[in-house]
Amino acid sequence: MSANPDDTPTFQSPEVNGQVPTEAQRALDLETRLPLTGWQQEVSEGLEYGLEAADSIRDRTIPTFSRGELPHYAGINTFLKAPYLVDVREVGKYDVAIVGVPHDSGTTYRPGTRFGPQGIRRISALYTPYNFELGVDLREQITLCDVGDIFTIPGNNEKSFDQISKGIAHIFSSGAFPIILGGDHSIGFPTVRGVCRHLGDKKVGIIHFDRHVDTQETDLDERMHTCPWFHATNMANAPAKNLVQLGIGGWQVPRQGVKVCRERATNILTVTDITEIGLDAAVEFALERALDGTDCVYISFDIDCIDAGFVPGTGWPEPGGLLPREALYLLGKIVQRAPVCGLEVVEVSPPYDVSDMTALMATRVICDTMAHLVLSGQLPRQEKPAYINTEANMHVDMAWV
Ligand SMILES: [Mn+2]
């Protein structure tokens, strides 16, 4: 081998059976194994309900009225253009249910997350149901519905919390995997309360991606978006020792919340911790602690865990957060190895967004989670997970005034 004259390192690709064993090569192979049944059904329904195209259209899979994925800029935007489920009593027939929680009365600085569900649904129209590297096609592999939004009560956190807990309990107990589009982070308490109502004596660990601890009892005299984990970890089904907080740090962490983290011994990693111990070690840290004595894991993903430069459309942007690919790597590895019982993505505020990029990041988090649930065999649902108790216990949380 002759030396490179200008000292530029030369890349030598290792070959196995004449092929370069890259992720890209693997992805090319994986695609051949995916069926096209769902796509063919979408085409035939499109032609039936949307009429065959005008005579000049050569591609005869195209209907006159757009009735599916294509074109991406057309149509009525549910999440990923999934069917809108009018009768929520039917939700248990689906593997995954998307639900919006348009609530921002818990916001203490920039409002606007009440438009989060709409913003996420709108930009989700950009996505296909297929991911190249993962070799997953959601249209072919799971059933997905969008149940629309919870009827929240503007200006009243407590009444909204009661609505949210009732709605999430309904979806969770049906067996459909709940994916919640926030909304500010105050909804983290009532969403987890909805799950806990149907856990019986089982327990849930919470993995919380955020720049903020969100553990103080009250903020501005109410249970605001800085407070969900104080109240969630008061429930016996959601012990504080199983709360894992990833990406915490900066100039917006209230000292009264820090005191609660110390007292309750929650499990915190800063961005520096994560980058210094490495992403795989951070995944081990999270799984070990969230799964210690619990039966399932709930993921609460605050979009502001990612560096503010990537997610300007949020309530309390804080520079110095995770890079998108770091956050997606952590999330993917965690979902692959934990029994996940639900996901919420919160703090997307479209009025402050730029080019829909914050809402797009939320869409990415949701689609990646679904794909990793497929790859780990958690979806499609074979049967209702054993940690779900059909009976509702309405007394999982203590009275609070
Ligand atoms: Mn936050």
TrEMBL record:
<dbReference type="InterPro" id="IPR023696">
    <property type="entry name" value="Ureohydrolase_dom_sf"/>
</dbReference>
<dbReference type="InterPro" id="IPR005925">
    <property type="entry name" value="Agmatinase-rel"/>
</dbReference>
<dbReference type="GO" id="GO:0008783">
    <property type="term" value="F:agmatinase activity"/>
</dbReference>
<keyword id="KW-0479">Metal-binding</keyword>
<keyword id="KW-0378">Hydrolase</keyword>
<dbReference type="InterPro" id="IPR006035">
    <property type="entry name" value="Ureohydrolase"/>
</dbReference>
<dbReference type="InterPro" id="IPR020855">
    <property type="entry name" value="Ureohydrolase_Mn_BS"/>
</dbReference>
<dbReference type="GO" id="GO:0033389">
    <property type="term" value="P:putrescine biosynthetic process from arginine, via agmatine"/>
</dbReference>
<protein>
    <submittedName>
        <fullName>Agmatinase</fullName>
        <ecNumber>3.5.3.11</ecNumber>
    </submittedName>
</protein>
<feature type="region of interest" description="Disordered">
    <location>
        <begin position="1"/>
        <end position="20"/>
    </location>
</feature>
<comment type="similarity">
    <text>Belongs to the arginase family. Agmatinase subfamily.</text>
</comment>
<dbReference type="Pfam" id="PF00491">
    <property type="entry name" value="Arginase"/>
</dbReference>
<dbReference type="GO" id="GO:0046872">
    <property type="term" value="F:metal ion binding"/>
</dbReference>
